[in-house]
Amino acid sequence: MKITYRYRVVAYFSLLLVSVTLAFALIYTHRERVIKIEMLKSEMIPYQRFIYSQLIKQFPESPNRADEPHIAEAMREIRALIPEKIRVTILTTDAWVLYDNFSDKESISENHLNRPELIDARTGNGGSAIRYSNTLKADYLYHATKYPEFFIRTALEYNTSVLPLLIKENRYMTLILIILAISIAAIIFMARRINKPVAALKEFIEAVQSGELERKEIKFPKDELGDVGEKIMKAFTQMEENKRYKQELTHNVAHELKTPVTGIRGYLETIINQDNLDVEQRKFFLDRAYAQTLRLTSIINDISILNKMEESPKNFHTERVSIRKCAEEIRSDLSYKLDERGIKMKIDIADDIAIKGSYMLIYSLFKNLVDNSIDHGGENISISIECTGITDGVAYFRYKDNGKGVPANQLERIFERFYRVEKGRSRRSGGSGLGLSIVKNAVLMHNGDIKAENLPEGGLLFSFSLSNVISPQLNA
After folding, report:
1. C-alpha neighbours within 13 Å on the C-beta side of residue 145
2. Tell me: the pLDDT tens digits for 79-116?
3. Within a 10 A sphere around the Cβ of 318, how many other Cβ atoms?
């Protein structure tokens, strides 16, 4: 069975937390055990000193085995002053038992020189050990001190005096376990939150694989991982849109190029196959073929500009672009078309308004707007270009004509590639359907925005902005 990501996170972090907690608990328990044992030993040592002070009064010199009755008598006098739980053993300097308050001295016949607490006491200030007593058949905590005349050893039974104190301190272990349980619960909660973007990403992948992405609403949590998931989904969606766009572009390009190429081929075949054509007929067909080559060139140039905008926008050379000078140049370049259709063009832009941008794109922007009015606005109309103001380095413009306008239900689509309001007529007029798409992309590449609307009195209005003004004299 495959463990999910969320449960793996819970398992890993819980294992780490349990390991750290156990290590801490072991260190804490050992430390507390050492402290409590040292505390118990410190309780026994004063009684050793008291016993020694009382015995030294009875035996100014080192006692021997013959002094055992006198030692027992002396201990009976002070026994009431010593807690009953403390076992007291007095031994000679060579570790023979002289007195033991918990057992009959006669039952202890062996030498105690090999006892660990006595070995340590002979070489230091004292010795201690927890060990089993063969005499009393129980575990004891021993502490022995070597005096010049004898050893005095005190002991506490481990199970009745030492262990209860250690167990009492272990109540902190319960608290540690409670904290551990709360921490694991917190890990589970956090793992659920961490898993949300993973689950959403998994749902997104499954939707992509099943082809149901458009029908599913996938929500990512509002955190950093959620943001990453959102960006991945948006990037994929953008890739899919680019893929569809390229497919549509390929189809549209093939369709758009087919008409002029077919026309050119037809006119040339007529000239080649018809030997009896007179000069005027030949010229007619050559003129038509030439017109189709111009249209073919226009389409190719427009496609090239759009591709360059999308694939390598940073490759456009930027410079200081005078907007009025650019508009005047377009009016001059298209003067023969304007005059032919009786169109008047008015430019209301100050001479010193300039932006830092691509001259080629700015030129294409205004030229395609003018071409659109010439091709679709009708004859004897007027065109107006004006700058309405500058705010925070952004210049705002209005381009309008009083031509035919666009049906309201098609306004939102006029910036789409190859979209034509009047498809048959537009194709006859030579338009590629890419002009307004170039306009929009040129505006976007200069960090602006654009919208189109019909004027109440008739005609079409484009309102757009261009950023990076470098010599503004107008104030909005």
Report:
1. 16
2. 889 998 999 999 988 888 889 988 876 777 788 889 99
3. 14
Dihedral angle computed from the Cα positions of residues 369, 375, 378 and 384, in that order, rounded to the nearest 10 degrees: 20
Evaluate the CA torsion angle 190, 195, 200, 201 in order and state its sign. positive
Query: Of 46, 58, 52, which is closest to residue 83 (Cα–Cα)?
Result: 46
Domain ranges of the chain: 5-171, 224-307, 316-466
Beta bridge partners of 253: none
Burial code (b: 16+ CB inside 10 Å, e: under 16) for 405-442 equals: bbeeeebeebbebbbbbeeeebbeeebbbbbbbbbbbb
Helix, strand, coil percent content, the chain, rounded in steps of 5: 60, 15, 25
Element (H, E) at 465: strand 460-466
* C-alpha to C-alpha distances, 417 to 294, 429, 430, nearest whole angstrom: 20, 17, 15
> Which residues, 6+ apart, have CB-to-CB distance to 343 below 8 Å?
337, 373, 374, 377, 379, 380, 381, 382, 383
Which one of 3.40.190.120, 3.50.50.60, 3.30.565.10, 3.90.950.10 gives the CATH number of domain 316-466?
3.30.565.10
Q: What is the pLDDT of residue 342?
A: 93
Distance CA 363, CA 297 (A): 18
At the fourth CATH level, the homologous superfamily of domain 5-171 is PAS domain (3.30.450.20)
Q: Return the H-helix or E-strand segment holding 288.
A: helix 279-311
Q: What is the pTM of this model?
A: 0.48
Q: Which amino acid is at 376?
A: H
CATH class of this structure's domain 224-307 = mainly alpha
